[in-house]
């Protein structure tokens, strides 16, 4: 099958759209594929949709910016396939995708992964109960369906996203039962060393401070230094238990609990391609190693956006442009220096405040209780994993083979970091040394029906 | 669990969850509709038959799997509701393999 596209961009969020626009300006014709029905990524999800004024106002100016970005992307004329899942990538790059129940495969000279991030899984006892979700999930419901909790909601965790979501929710008449802030106390001392570096990016920090003050003025319970969260219930969540900084444990009725402990890069595709990854202590996750253009250790495979390390939407756009220029150069379409200089400047500016944010909201370190379901798919607990680790000393892949942990449909997207952490603790070794599951195709489940289309060599959409 | 801040004037249509009509609107994912329709779950797991509801809404947890128009194990958070869609909540057994 021939294709007029040499370059594939996976993901139509800030990074993917910016890369596409940049490539179009250079006269390149990439193909953009994206899982969602509409462009914008998670941050600008459904930005194009018609909205009431009150919803628009509640979602705020950062979200509103998405509309113009999406319009520019659409106007660029770049080929774009929404509703398309990438499920396998082979060196050289033969790429396998599915759209509307039919699989297809094409070859590309360069691939740019702009697949972004996912929320860090927060394994607490009871997190599999209906009525426990992530803050990001609730925010997506707000953006796509103007949907808010129908009763006062508990929000538990740390980071900028809960603050933003609480603001949006209150502006729309939603109610908050309480914010259980798990940020360890005494973060200010850790943050000071980064303050100087952040001066250039201070608008982000000031914005955060402003949000915090406005929220505190609302008067809902805001408990700091909370730990030992537990969601309790039979068929669904009925109450939440937690320990406050004074050491007292409380239990309160709850119908909806939203969790959030920051976001981590989506690494399944780069893991499957055997790219090099480094452990980041600051962000508590693996980050694929990239060069100054965003190229991974696999020639021709590029990364841009939060998938290359969490830095937010505006940094993602700059990285998208830089990767686009790098790919152009690689394909012999020489990239103009001024564009590169301005993109690098933008990236510097947009990442200046990041060390402060990372230091303010460090990844959680509390031990995962034995009774916690770690693998949501196979329903294995942290205790099961510890027992397996004692019985058969081995890495994540051995544990997977012995227990089936990570073998379910999510492919370790929810349990991978939990297993990594437990094995590190059990064996007294670093998280980086312990590593992650080996990821095998398919990256997303594929049905026989989808594969049939591939066998028949049906025309790609 | 959730309610929709309905804009008067936004059109709506029906989908059928286990045969019962539920209201959906353009832009809704199937998972969004499930989360505002009692008992607010997507399925019971094949392993221990525990109830699960959509959890991440961005395609990474697979707890929103349901049967949509006879297709099994559909990630309902990635599928837009369409008029007349038939959604069935799986009850265990049907094991999902890769
Ligand atoms: S809700 Fe997590 S995959 Fe759909």
If classified by CATH, what would the architecture of chain B be? Roll
Radius of gyration of chain A: 22 Å
The major pleated sheet of chain B works out as: 5 strands, mixed
Per the CATH scheme, the topology name of the largest domain in chain A is FAD/NAD(P)-binding domain
Q: How big a fraction of the residues of chain A is strand?
A: 15-25%
**What structural class results from the helix and strand content of chain B?**
mainly beta
Q: What share of the residues of chain A lie within helices? A: 25-40%
Write up what this structure looks like:
- The complex is a heterodimer of chains A (461) and B (98).
- Chain A is α/β, with parallel strands linked by helices and 461 residues long.
- Chain A has helices at 14-25, 53-59, 61-75, 135-145, 160-171, 188-198, 202-216, 268-272, 313-330, 337-351, 354-360, 382-391, 396-403, 416-427, 431-434, 448-455; strands spanning 7-10, 31-33, 79-81, 84-90, 94-99, 102-107, 110-113, 117-119, 132-134, 147-149, 153-158, 176-181, 222-223, 227-232, 239-243, 249-253, 257-261, 263-265, 277-280, 285-288, 301-303, 373-375, 380-381.
- In chain A, 37% of the residues lie in helices and 21% in strands.
- In chain A, the strands form seven sheets. A five-stranded parallel sheet of chain A has the order 3-2-1-7-21, with helices on one face. In chain A, strands 9-17-11-12-13 form a five-stranded parallel sheet. In chain A, strands 4-5-6 form a three-stranded antiparallel sheet.
- In chain A, strand 15 (239-243) and strand 16 form a beta hairpin.
- In chain A, helix 2 (53-59) runs antiparallel to helix 5 and helix 5 (160-171) crosses helix 7.
- Chain A is globular and about 65 Å long.
- Chain B has 98 residues and is mostly beta strands.
- Chain B has a single domain, classed as Ubiquitin-like (UB roll), CATH 3.10.20.30.
- Chain B contains one helix and eight strands.
- In chain B, the strands form two sheets. Chain B has a five-stranded mixed sheet with strand order 3-2-8-6-7. Chain B has a two-stranded antiparallel sheet with strand order 4-5.
- The longest helix of chain B has 5 residues, at 30-34.
- The model of chain B has no long low-confidence stretch (mean pLDDT 91).
- Chains A and B meet through strand 9, helix 4 and strand 10 of A and strand 1 and strand 5 of B.
- Residues 31, 54-57, 59-64, 75, 77 of chain B line the site of FE2/S2 (inorganic) cluster.
């Amino acid at each position: 099958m021939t294709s007029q596209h040499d370059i594939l961009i996976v993901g139509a969020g800030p990074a993917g759209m910016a890369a596409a626009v940049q490539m179009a300006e250079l006269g390149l014709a990439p193909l953009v594929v994206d899982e969602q029905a509409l462009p914008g990524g998670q941050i600008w999800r459904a930005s194009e949709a018609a909205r009431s004024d009150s919803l628009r106002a509640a979602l705020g100016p950062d979200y509103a910016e998405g509309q113009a970005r999406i319009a520019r992307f659409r106007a660029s004329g770049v080929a774009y396939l929404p509703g398309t899942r990438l499920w396998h990538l082979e060196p050289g790059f033969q790429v396998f995708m599915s759209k509307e129940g039919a699989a297809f495969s094409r070859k590309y000279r360069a691939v740019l992964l702009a697949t972004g991030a996912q929320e860090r899984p927060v394994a607490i006892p009871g997190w599999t109960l209906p009525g426990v979700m992530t803050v990001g999930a609730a925010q997506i419901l707000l953006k796509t369906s103007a949907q808010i909790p129908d009763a006062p909601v508990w929000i538990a965790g740390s980071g900028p996203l809960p603050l933003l979501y609480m603001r949006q929710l209150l502006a729309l008449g939603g109610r908050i039962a309480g914010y259980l802030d798990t940020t360890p106390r005494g973060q200010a001392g850790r943050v000071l060393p980064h303050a100087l570096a952040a001066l250039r990016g201070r608008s982000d920090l000031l914005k955060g401070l402003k949000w915090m003050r406005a929220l505190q003025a609302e008067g809902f319970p805001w408990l700091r230094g909370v730990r030992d969260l537990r969601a309790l219930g039979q068929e669904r969540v009925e109450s939440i238990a937690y320990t406050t900084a004074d050491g007292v444990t409380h239990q309160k009725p709850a119908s909806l609990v939203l969790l959030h402990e920051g976001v981590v890069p989506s690494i399944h595709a780069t893991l499957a391609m055997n790219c090099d990854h480094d452990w980041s202590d600051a962000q508590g996750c693996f980050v694929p190693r990239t060069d100054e253009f965003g190229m991974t250790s696999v020639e021709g495979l590029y990364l841009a956006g939060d998938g290359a390390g969490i830095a937010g939407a505006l940094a993602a756009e700059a990285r998208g442009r830089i990767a686009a220029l790098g790919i152009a150069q690689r394909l012999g379409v020489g990239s103009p220096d001024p564009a590169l200089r301005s993109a690098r400047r933008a990236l510097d500016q947009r990442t200046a405040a990041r060390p402060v944010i990372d230091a303010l909201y460090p990844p959680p370190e509390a031990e995962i209780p034995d009774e916690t379901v770690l693998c949501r798919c196979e329903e294995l607990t942290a205790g099961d994993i510890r027992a397996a680790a004692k019985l058969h000393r081995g890495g994540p892949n051995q544990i997977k083979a012995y227990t089936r942990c990570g073998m379910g449909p999510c492919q370790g997207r929810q349990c991978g970091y939990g297993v990594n952490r437990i094995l590190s603790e059990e064996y007294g070794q670093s998280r980086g040394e312990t590593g992650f599951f080996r990821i095998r195709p398919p990256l997303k489940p594929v049905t026989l029906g989808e594969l049939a289309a591939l066998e028949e060599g049906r025309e790609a959409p | 669990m959730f309610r929709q801040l309905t804009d008067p004037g936004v059109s709506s249509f029906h989908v059928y969850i286990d045969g019962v009509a539920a209201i959906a609107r353009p832009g809704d994912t199937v998972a969004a509709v499930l989360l505002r329709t009692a008992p607010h779950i997507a399925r019971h797991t094949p392993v221990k038959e525990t109830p699960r509801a959509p959890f991440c809404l961005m395609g990474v947890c697979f707890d929103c799997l349901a049967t949509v128009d006879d297709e099994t194990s559909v990630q309902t958070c990635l599928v837009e509701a369409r008029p007349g869609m038939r959604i069935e909540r799986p009850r265990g057994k049907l094991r999902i393999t890769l």
